[in-house]
Amino acid sequence: MSQPIRFTLSQADIPQQWYNLNADFPEPMPPPLHPGTKQPVSLEMMTAIFPENLVRQEMCPDRWVEIPEPVRDIYALWRPTPLLRATRLEKALQTPAHIYYKYEGASPAGSHKPNTAVAQAYFNKIAGTQRLATETGAGQWGSSLAFACRFFELECNVYMVKVSYQHKPYRRMLMHTWGATVHPSPSDQTNFGRKLLAEDPACPGSLGIAISEAIEDTVTHPHTKYSLGSVLNHVCLHQSVIGQEAIKQMELAGEEPDSVYGCAGGGSNFAGIAFPFLYRKIREGKPCRIVAVEPSACPSLTKGELRYDFGDTAETTPLMMMYTLGHKFMPPPIHAGGLRYHGMAPMVSHALKLGLIEAKAVHQTRVFEAGALFARSEGVVPAPESAHAIAAVVEEALAARAAGQKRVILFNLSGHGLLDLSAYESYFAGKLEDA
Ligand SMILES: *Cc1c(COP(=O)(O)O)cnc(C)c1O
């Protein structure tokens, strides 16, 4: 063996606490507002759809939040996730840069999303919830929540955007396998869905419609709460296990990353890898570039406005201060479904506003080029979402080659692409376009 490329931790190294960047922002975040009164939302308003323990986490000022034992026990099924050095990618790029990646595709659902799904299912269970309602686009979040609900005997009701329900069957089958009920949205389960179907029986659905249906389902059923897979503060909190593990693993590798990359849709996996490094940047003065990578076709951080906006199309959520393209924005149908969100997590938005992080947008064809290069050099087929981070890393590694600079780059590989192969097929057939 020439050199170590895989840096593994033991089960005992699963973090004991989640890290909350809220405690370390040099300026406090603007609070979410009630759309009618424009006053900060109350605990009561939030507990209509979320359990109180998660609402308290959402508003939590503490730096560290204990991870309950039952959650760590389930994390142990796949955590700590591996961190690898991509030496073959380095060679293919002929770069002096060292490239490391944290692999979140190792979870049973194939992405980072179970990190929060398991936590949310647990906190709902101990709060007395019996049934969770949620929405999903292509099915990454729905399948992660379906997986998590199994461990706590919670019913899981998923509203899946109808075009995906019809054209992307495998994640729907995964949800069924884990025992969830999946409705194509718009559905006949809610007043809102029935109204839309009456107007247009062929309505293809959208994430905004599915969110509205899941929220209506929540408020019209007993013992039911709503669950969201990204954007919110408590979701970013739960994902902090990624960066905490990565810091320990980079120590094992004996290197300090000078830049950290993650793709950003709603912002949660980026927050997960980035915020623990931001902790060291803010509190210990360790310099590090931290870069969020988004699609050029849905560029909330690089082209959006920082302002209060709704989280959903139907204007049912509180107003959140975030970089947004406007809640009516309809992103073009790019293949990275998980990155087609009009806004960005308020915590990630605040970090960008304060200059703690940078943002970059990449075009879809460069993304698949980088994804295919990664698959062919490292073996793992990255999810199209994750390949956004890879495209930016490849660009940086090539710049390091041009400048003859040794660099240490770390990125989060948020999920594998084994259920996204048709997108790769379209790319190889030359059928992908840049919006
Ligand atoms: C859902 C998803 C994303 C985007 O969501 P974030 O909240 O921005 O992390 C990224 N990668 C994968 C693999 C996903 O499933």
Features of the shown structure:
7-stranded mixed beta sheet, Rossmann fold, 4-stranded parallel beta sheet, 435 residues, binds pyridoxal-5'-phosphate, single chain, alpha/beta, 2 domains, 18 helices, 15 strands
Task: Tell me what you see in this structure.
The chain has 435 residues and is α/β, with parallel strands linked by helices. The protein folds into two domains: 6-14 and 68-111 and 234-428, Rossmann fold; 112-232, 3-Layer(aba) Sandwich (Rossmann fold). The chain is 41% helix and 17% strand. It has helices at 43-47, 52-58, 69-75, 87-93, 114-126, 140-150, 162-167, 169-177, 191-199, 207-220, 233-238, 241-253, 268-284, 300-303, 346-353, 364-378, 384-403, 421-428, and strands at 6-7, 17-19, 64-66, 83-85, 98-103, 131-136, 155-161, 181-185, 224-226, 259-263, 289-295, 305-310, 319-324, 358-362, 408-413. The chain has a seven-stranded mixed sheet with strand order 1-4-5-15-10-11-14, with helices on both faces. The longest helix has 20 residues, at 384-403. The termini are far apart. Residues 111, 113, 140, 230, 263-270, 338-339, 383, 385-386, 414-415 line the site of pyridoxal-5'-phosphate (PLP).
